[in-house]
Design a protein that fits this description.
Elements (H helix, E strand, L loop, with lengths): L1 H9 L8 H7 L4 E3 L5 E3 L2 H8 L4 E2 L35 H10 L15 H13 L7 E2 H6 L1 H11 L6 H14 L8 H28 L5 H7 L9 H32 L1 H9 L4 H11 L6 E6 L3 E3 L2 E3 L5 E3 L1 H4 L34 H18 E2 L2 E2 L19 E3 L2 E2 L2
Parallel strand pairs: 2-8
Antiparallel strand pairs: 1-2, 3-5, 4-11, 5-8, 6-7, 9-12, 10-11
Helix pairs in contact: 1-2, 5-7, 5-15, 7-8, 7-11, 8-9, 9-10, 9-11, 11-13, 11-15, 12-15, 13-15
């Protein structure tokens, strides 16, 4: 049963609504797949493990993934660049994250994200202005997808004339994260590798320019920083920039798209948001609980034997944490399957927790708040054309691949 349940969760047929499967999974908080992964699905256990220093994010500590039926889903990097800090443990993780955070957020750069508010609003407005036919809108292709990659370009300091190339590389790399049963895996792998190489070479050139002529952007700050940890090596900087692009793009696409889908399924909340854009803050927090853009964390392993709810998870085992299941755990949240932005206590796992909690959370929150409040305000009588919409293949980064909607018109 355990084995088939986990395969059902990864089965594309259940992508549109995996939540009944998560409910079944929670009946056994620590599932052991035959000869493979240990899967933890309850809120308090997941949160505890995310804060446990005995849990590693480095693939080299995995004893073996040979018998792990889920291992393939965890492969996101192809060796072009060194592992990003997402895939490292302390002290290397802490050093790189500290260095990346200096130009990104408090205490050293408290206004970096909030200072982009006006620019983000302009990007959102331009995308909505460019929608065209209100009778047939693909929210993903026309809005959710181009929005965050444009934001990442502006954050890093990619020149406007190069944004289209950057979009193209992001598209190819993002596509490679989704399994495609109809495509040649070798060809897709080659295309993704080539895109990563071109992106890496482009960023390397841009870093050199910024070292010589710094500007007021994050790449300049990272390239010229000389803080307590010294300067970032070029390969570390490339890896960090690629992480900001891929992680920052993919999760925000899903957050915005899942958000609009949820609002259209809850028209009373949509009406309230249209009347009061301040509601965007609690709406986004509840969305991060209700429909998190990252459903599973597959790349963890214990550095020693650990016991969770009476089950010993051995050193080196493949450990999966099902964040989306923890977010619907009735032991933690009352009426967990109800979307309720008035919920008083939303300490969700939508951005993870502990040392690997989502680095870009402040930016993702602001992007989603601005995007959803403006879509609610400007789309006149929006409605779904297909429910459920077609989903991406990826079980980890879960969200609609397309979201066909219509509206009566677009307000100024």
């Amino acid at each position: 049963m355990t084995r088939s349940l986990l395969h059902e969760i990864l089965d594309y047929a259940n992508r549109a609504d995996p939540y009944p499967l998560y409910e079944e999974l929670r009946k056994t908080p620590v599932h052991h797949v035959d000869d493979g992964a240990y899967v933890v699905s309850t809120y308090y256990e997941i949160r505890s493990l995310l804060h446990d220093p005995r849990i590693s994010s480095e693939a080299r500590h995995l004893a073996s993934t040979a018998h792990d039926p889920l291992a393939a889903a965890a492969q996101e990097e192809d060796g072009v660049l060194p592992p990003s800090f997402l895939r490292l443990d302390p002290p290397e993780h802490d050093r790189l994250r500290r260095m990346t955070n200096r130009p990104f957020g408090p205490p050293h750069s408290p206004h970096r994200v909030d200072g982009m508010r006006e620019e983000l609003h302009g990007i959102v407005s331009d995308l909505i202005d460019g929608i065209g036919d209100p009778g047939r809108i693909d929210l993903v292709d026309q809005f959710s997808y181009p929005f965050p990659v444009t934001v990442i370009c502006r954050l890093l300091g990619v020149p406007r004339e190069d944004e289209a190339r950057f979009h193209s590389w992001a598209d190819t790399i993002a596509a490679s994260l989704d399994p495609d049963p109809d495509a040649d895996p070798a060809e897709r792998g080659k295309e993704a590798h080539e895109a990563r190489m071109q992106l890496g070479m482009y960023l390397a050139g841009l870093i050199e320019q910024r070292r010589k002529n710094p500007r007021d952007d994050m790449l300049s700050a990272l390239a010229t920083a000389e803080g307590p940890d010294g300067a970032m090596a070029t390969m570390e900087l490339l890896s960090t920039a690629a992480l900001l692009l891929i992680a920052g793009h993919e999760t925000t696409v899903n957050l915005v798209t899942n958000g609009m889908l949820t609002l259209l399924r809850n028209p009373d909340v949509l009406r309230r948001l249209r009347a009061d854009p301040r509601l965007a803050v609690p709406v986004v927090e509840e969305l991060l609980r209700f429909e998190p853009p990252v459903q599973l964390l597959p790349q963890r392993t214990p550095l020693a034997d650990i016991e969770v709810r009476g089950v010993t998870i051995p050193k080196g085992a493949s450990l999966w944490l099902v964040l989306a299941s923890g977010n619907r755990d009735p032991q933690r949240f009352e009426n967990p399957d109800r979307f309720d932005p008035d919920r008083r206590d939303i300490q969700h796992l939508g951005f993870g927790s502990g040392i690997h909690s989502c680095f870009g959370a402040p930016l993702a929150r602001l992007e989603a708040q601005l995007a959803l409040s403006e879509l609610a305000r400007r789309l006149d009588n929006p409605r779904l054309l297909q429910d459920p919409p077609p989903y991406r293949q990826n079980a980890v980064l879960r969200g609609p691949r397309h979201l066909p909607i219509a509206c009566d018109g677009i307000r100024p």
